[in-house]
Every structure is written in C-alpha cells, then in structure tokens.
Amino acid sequence: MTVSQQLENQPMGVVNMVPPAKRQVVLDVRNLKVYYETPTGNVRAVDDISFQIYEGEIVGLVGESGCGKTTTAMAILRLVQPPGQIVGGQILLNGVDMTSLDGRDLRAVRWSNLALIPQGAMNSLNPIMRVHDQIADVIEAHEGKQPRQVLKERILTLLRLVGLPTRVYEMYPHELSGGMKQRVCIAMAVALNPPLVIADEPTSALDVIVQRVVAQNLLDIKERLGVSMIIIGHDMGLMAQLADRVAVMYAGHMIEIAPVQQLYAAPMHPYTQLLIESIPSIKTRKPLKITEGITHDLRNPPPGCIFQGRCPHVMEICRQVRPPLTEHQPSQQVACHLYE
Amino acid sequence: MAQPLLEIRNATKIYGGGFMQRSAVTVALQNYNLTIADQPATITTIAGESGSGKSTLANAVLGFTQITSGEICYKGVNITTMNSQQQFEYRREVQAIFQDPYAVYNPFYRVKHVFDLVIKNFKMAHNQQAARELIENALNVVGLRGQEVLEKYPHQLSGGQRQRMMVARAYLLKPRLIVADEPVSMVDASLRAMILDLMLKLRDEQHISFLYITHDLSTAYQIGDQIYLLYQGSIAERGNTQQVIEEPKHPYVQLLINSIPVPDPTIRWGGESVVSLDDEQMRVNASSGCRFYNRCPHHMARCLEQMPPLYPVNGNGHEAACYLYDEQVANS
C-alpha cells in the first residue's frame, strides 16, 4: 500500500491540528479479533475492532479492567499467549501486516519498529544486569556489535532524554526508585527510535508526584522524537493530560474514538458519558454517577450492542443489531444506535 | 468534651533495627496523633504516597501490628491493655475493608462462608433463620440480593459486587468504625462511585465512622470530612478536607495537589514540577529536621535542625507542619 492510498483511507476530519497531507497512518488495525479458548467456549476478549494511529500522536486506550485493552496491545505486538489467539483481522504497521510475520521477522520488527513499555515496567528489568548492559543488549541485538565509546554515548543520550542522571548508567535496578526504573524502561523502548511505542499503564504503580514527572517525560519524548504512542490506562485524569485522542473500549468492543477535548466535553456513547461523569475531581464536589449492572459473559455475548445491559437509553434495535463504529461528529467515531 | 471514639496519641512505629541490623531502621510512623469523635459519624481520610505510613496506621488501629511507642485508645481504653470483654467488643465494633476484593475470599468456599464465619464467631444469631435474616438485611443495605449472590463462588461475582459484599460483611457486625484501606483503588471507575456512595450512606444513615486510607485525593475530596496528609510517617497537614485541598499550605501538599492530573484536557497541569533528578533518591530518613527538606522550594536553615510541629493556619483546625507558618504566629 502506498502512502497516497493510506491517506485516502484515512477518515475525514481526524486532522485537528496538523494539515491532512502530513498525517500518515502508522498503525492500521482492521477487524481485529482475539479469542481465548476455554472449555466452555471462546471468550471474545477483542471482538472485531478497527482503529488507526497517526504519526506523532498519543492515543489513550481506556476502559475498565477486562475490557480487552491489554489484549489489544499484545495482539499488535503479536504477544498473545495461548489459550489466546488472533482469530481474524489485520494489523498493518507502516503497511506491513503483523499477523503474517513469522518468528524471525517479528524479532526484527519488535523494538525497532514497535516497542512496548510493559505493565509494571519496573519489574521487567533484569535484576542482575546493570542499566547500561540492558540498554546495550537491546541495541546490539538489532544493530550488531557497536564500538564501545559510541554505544556508551548513545546510552547516555538516552538516559538524558528521560531525565535521568549519568550515574544511573552504572547502577543495578535495585538501586533505583520506581519512577527511575520506569524511566529506564522508557529509554529502552525508544532506544532504536521506533515509530510506535505501546505503553501499558506506564504510571499506575507510581505516586502522583512521580507519575507527573514520568507523564511529562512521555510527552517530551513524543515532541522530540515524533514517535506515536498508544497509552493504555484507566485514569481518565491522566489521559486528559497526556492523550491527543482517546479510544474507549468496553467488553472487547471499540465504542468511541475522539480527540481528547471533544471526548471530555461532549462524549457521545452512553458508556463514555458514564465514564466521564464518574471521574472524581478535586475542583468540584458533586455526586458521582452510579450505574448498576455487570458486563455480559464474553463467552456468549448477546446479539446487538454489548452495552445493552447497563445502558439507560436501550432501544429495541440495540438488542438485535450491533452498532458499527461510524463517524457522527467530525473526527468523533462512536458505535451507538442513538445517533442514526 | 465527650470521650472520642478513637484516639491515637504519639504513635511511633519503627521497623527493623534489631540487634543484628542496627543500621536498617525504618520509621514508618512518627509521633502521630489522631482523634475521631464519637458523634457525629465522620469520614476521616488518611492520605499520602506509598511508604508514607498509611497502611501501618491502619494495621495498628486494627491491632495487626503493635506500635513501638505511644498509645491507641478505643473509647478511652488502650487497645493493648484491654480485658477480654473489651477486646471482644472492640473486635466487633472496628471492622475493615481491604484493597483487593479478589484476595479476601477463599476461592474454594461459596461467598456465604464469609458471613457464616462472622456470625458464628461473634454469636450473632442462634439459628439459621435469624442468621439468614441478618445477612439479607446487610446485603440489602449495599444493594445486593441474597438469593443472587450468596450461593455463588467468588469468581462468579464482579469486582464491584465482591467489594460491596465486604462492606456488607463489615456492616453486619454493626460496627462503629470501619477502617477502609484503599477500598476503591482496584475497582473500576464506573463502580468506584457506588462504593464511595455506600460509604456516605453508611455514615449518614447508620452512623458508622470511617478511617478512609487512600492515595487518591480526588475521592477523598468527594467524600471526606477530615483529612490527614502524611509525608514519610508524620503529619504534613491536617484539617477539613475541602479547606486543605482547596488551599493547601504545606509545600509538599501543594506539590501533591498540583501534580494530580485534572480530568479536563483544557486545563493543563498547574505550577511547575519541582522534582529534580535526584530527588527520588534523596528520601533520606533524617534523624532530625523536616523530612521534606530536600525537595522543598522554601527550605530554610531552621528546617534541618528540628522537625517542625503543626502550626495552625486559617483556623478551623487546619494545621500544617511547616516553619513557614510559625512566622505568622509570631507576627500577629
């Protein structure tokens, strides 16, 4: 697929700040389905979702626990473990279909084209390797042996990029605080300058003050390197500060994608509305919105809309036809029958 | 003044520092004072970052850990010197709700088990019928129905349901005080509101006080009456929740409140982030002096000499442990 074709496929109006011609699709997920096999049937963890990530933007992927956020990210990285399985769809990273790659090609693509900052990244560092050895490992695995001085310079630049002091270079993970370890992981993720970084709950284990430092670090890196990011999280406050666009998932379905201002000011899907209204704030004291009900069993979802059991506006059609994700407002896509 | 429900006086908890490891001492709580009035029922928030001593405090109040010095009095009686009758009453009237609604259940038992156990241990009912009524009643308070949930196994319930069952279990014993240690941090956003609302309902309708332990100031702001902000084991600031969060006085609390991401994309993070590179490393346990010295933008020579006591600011019981407010007193 050529660049011009990619641009034609791009939905109209998603361009809010950058002129259309400059916005390239980095990642195009089409009709992705990931199922987990269980003795009592397949759990549809990700059920037919499609979305695009553009160059140099941060997309926040939000939803409650178990809605398929992490599974989506793992599918993009082709890291879904059995019993999970990608059963359908395409994941085009710069035009290359990730679902068709074999082990060797995948190893080449990971880190260099697509990096992950895992959940609880602080525990993903090797406790018996010094920080610089771990970063060097990533670089040399992809680019071959490097001259020592060049490598050292490069690692120090990376550490500076995430705001860590030079002495971290020689340290072991146990000598670092949680926030510092998290920043080492960020440095590793951007070591090979990948066009897309996926961060799974990058700040959830950190204190508020440190969270802010790490979050601003991520923003800073996006600005400087022009890297696209998918940030998974459930903290709507943090998303408001970090993301350019927000994608909301519910029970394996993508139900709304919109630019961050639009999503917070005028959420369209009833679930998003509920989500926005239930954010506790330190600015105003207000009764929080409460909804009853639990999500459907994902082994046997009902026909129609996945949110029908909790939706205050449920209609007859919602129980029969699954609403497609369509654009109702400029650049705001929503999957709901209310807007048809 | 009436007898307070719970009073903590000069509580200090030191971990480690035994014969073999004299150097490795962690002061988890230092000269901590807290009072919860008997009437009316209130929600008292204990907030602070991880490692600030919040959970140590909860464990001490529940009697899971013993404090090194100082005393914790329930209805005027020190909890370590209670007789068995008083202890029985204390164990019934002070209940707990924990952070993880998944880990508190034994997965091999039906959820009914957690209720049966407390009824048996506290001899709440003499026959099955009465026990069942008590349980149904408690479940109704939290908005659940017995026949829907009691016979299920924990994994068949949602996280919100499980956490509400824990509230019901605590309520069943007709407590006066519930220690809620991060009750909503593992519950999804849409269900969080339900648990918080339940706490308000129990406070207003059943006159149950809460010791609400959290790191999330925004939920504290929504429901809390009094707030105590901890920094490395000692109180940095305390007062009325709204007053403290709207007009924080202690430099640490100001930094903390500025760092909370505002859920509105049109408002950017306020203030400057003052955490410099090495600050996270500088959390030294200074033997004397203000613990926040290294990170504080206003630090003075005096801050190193002695730990600042709580100075009143603004009246209304609003106090901050910072020498900045000593001058105000001297000048007026």
If you had to describe this structure to a student in words, what would you say it looks like?
The complex is a heterodimer of chains A (340) and B (332). Helix content of chain A is 29%, strand content 24%. Chain A has 340 residues and is an alpha/beta fold. Chain A has 2 domains: 3-113 and 195-339, Rossmann fold, CATH 3.40.50; 123-193, no CATH class. In chain A, strand 9 and strand 10 form a beta hairpin. Chain A starts with a helix and ends in a 6-residue tail after the last strand. In chain B, helix 4 crosses helix 6 and helix 6 (159-172) packs parallel to helix 7 (189-206). With 332 residues, chain B is an alpha/beta fold. Chain B has 2 domains: 6-246, 3-Layer(aba) Sandwich (Rossmann fold), CATH 3.40.50.300; 248-332, no CATH class. Helices cover 33% and strands 20% of the residues of chain B. The interface between A and B is large, with 48 and 45 residues.
Output the helix-strand order of chain A: HEEEHEEHEHHHEHEHEEHHEE
Q: How much helix, percentage-wise, in residues of chain A?
A: 25-40%
Count of domain modules of chain B: 2
Q: Give the CA-CA distance, first to last residue of chain A.
A: 32 Å
Largest interface: A-B, 48 and 45 residues
* CATH level 1 class label of the largest domain in chain A: Alpha Beta
CATH architecture of the largest domain in chain A: 3-Layer(aba) Sandwich
Strand order in the sheet with the most strands of chain B: 6-7-8-3-9-10-12-11
Quote the average pLDDT of chain B: 83
